[in-house]
Design goal:
332 residues; five-stranded mixed beta sheet; Actin-related protein 10; disordered N terminus; ATPase_NBD; 20% strand; Actin; Nucleotidyltransferase, domain 5; alpha+beta
Length: 332
Amino acid sequence: MALYEGIALIQEKQAVVLDLGTDYTKFGFTGEAAPRCIVRSEFWCPAERRYKRLHDYSSPQELYDNIVHMLHLLYFRHVLVNPKERRVVVVESLLTPTLFRETLAKVLFIHYEVSGALWVDSGRASALTLAAPVVLVVSIGARDAEVTAVVHGCPVLRALQSQPLGARAVSAELARLLDEDNGRALNLPDDVLDDIKVRACFVPGREAALQWAARGVPAEVREARRGADAVVSRRARALSAEPLFARDEELASLPDMVLQCIAQCPIDARRALAASVLVTGGGAALPGLRARLAQELRHLAKLPPYKERLQELQFKFHSAPAHENSVAWVGG
């Protein structure tokens, strides 16, 4: 046996990093700058003869089968590795249901017989990519938006904020605006809405959004796909993300979540958190979102109930070291 072959035999193989998102799953190896694959969280179900979403289940056994099929697709179709030979790092939200976490552990250890598994929360994993002692992580996922304060490597659990203000809320508002502009119910599928959102939508400044919401914008473009011909106005493109910033009596908007998280953190960490904001998640990829969030934070910090505690803070934002959708995976 050659010398280099013996060294290769005793060398431990890279662990795999798994991020099972609501809409998209990231899968790859530790030490790499990006996932090997980013695929939709769905698989072909032979029993039902259709594509099935990972998170569509009605019983623990159905969830178990979904995870088995999804991991089989990742291991043997996309990266072609033996799961028994590599450890697993699972990146997940702190608010992941216990049933999902325990079922995933059963699949990994019983069905695929992995040698070891480590669970890492997405907020702390995102903060690790910056190597900063204090980071305020704003994660905008498919279904929910979460704000996590990470202080010296530990998330402040009492300050954790979560609201259903993810990318699906933007898609729902876009569908409503398109129906208004076209004067009829278009019933566009999710993939068409996602395509319009990615290619055409943006987040305007605060003043422009208020003006356009009041009087509208006449400029129009047309979107034709799969036989569907729809008018996509500039108003729909610009105002589709407004649900993230709309305030109500419960103060449940995205800027309110950030300010409430900072207010519930220790007083000596608030200034550092405000100066170290990291926006991640697939929903954070909309052009102009960070600039609009900064404007809203500076405006709301001068109003009750934040004026007395947060008025003097200066908000600064990090540039993500990777694409917004895969920052947590890179940290894992």
